[in-house]
Prior knowledge:
The protein is α/β, with parallel strands linked by helices. 34% of the residues lie in helices and 18% in strands. The chain has helices at 11-23, 50-54, 107-120, 144-156, 171-177, 191-198, 214-226, 254-261, 270-274, 277-289, 316-332; strands at 2-5, 27-32, 37-42, 59-63, 83-85, 88-90, 96-100, 124-126, 160-164, 180-183, 204-207, 232-236, 266-268, 294-298. Strands 7-8-9-10-11-12-13-14 form an eight-stranded parallel beta barrel, surrounded by seven helices. 48% of the residues are buried.
Amino acid sequence: MLVVMQEGATEPQIQAVIDRMVALGFTVHRSTGVVHTVLGGVGPAERVDPADFEVIEGVKEARRIQSPYKLAGRHFCPAGTVVQVGDVDIGGPRVVVMAGPCSVENRDQVMHTAERVARAGARVIRGGAFKPRSSPYTFQGLGEEGLRLLREAADQYHLKVISEVMDHTQIPLVAAYADILQVGARNMQNYNLLREVGRQPKPVLLKRGPAATIEELLLSAEYILSEGNYNVILCERGIRTFETYTRNTMDLAAIPVVKKLSHLPIIADPSHGTGRRDKVLPMARAAVAAGADGLLIEVHCDPDHALSDGAQSLWPEQFEELMAQLRIIAPAVGRSL
Ligand code: PEP
Ligand code: MN
């Protein structure tokens, strides 16, 4: 059930509604908007008449939520959520670009890439320290050493860090170094992991599974939100279709669809979305034009010798070119870079 408080509702009025909802068996999630406070109640909605809430002082309206995702739906935060990562706002007017290698390989690689992407305007460095690889015989990541290198590079070049957490036991370690925890496509339906990242405070980037519908993506986000972590960023990274020319099929329509259905920011990953370096720039441009709140781009200073995903990693010069193009495209859709 959703209870929208009136503009200017007082704190005691809001608390009285929360108390009433809790007494009826609801778990209450609060969204404090600029104008209205919205209370999302997860619980026995079918046994409660929303009209009973509309007579309580300070309440503007109350209704049942029809969609299966109660907290990820736009009704919970109509103005849209801005996820704050220090001084980087994701979901605000600025398009946030996260860039870096697929995997952290060594210090030189990370420092060099960080310097180039930061100079070009990226605000977050990406890099996997724990890698979900299709084959157990390929490079699996540097683990904690990789996280340490990412942090060092980020601090030197005033960047934030995003890195993947593959398993709930890795959360404390990754959270000690990274500013954003990435839940990878293969783990989008690892419900234990989703619940655990929902129980800690760092923002979470949730990637769409290769065979997941948009509704399943939003329900996975719901797992995180329902544990109390509202700092969730969604990511379209391509889905598996009958097409084999590209590594995945980049579903750009997911961006406006998610924007309508959900208040959560959504970014695009055209590197995994296409798997081919020469296709990354066009799809990155298109994603920003389609309303993406940010981009996740693989960049490597020597992509031909990368230990993972070299074929889809941009040269730093290509990344600079992309950023120059985005500086023209973003204002055309009311954003900045
Ligand atoms: C990655 O970002 O390096 C990654 C493994 O992505 P995905 O989970 O989308 O495959
Ligand atoms: Mn990769």
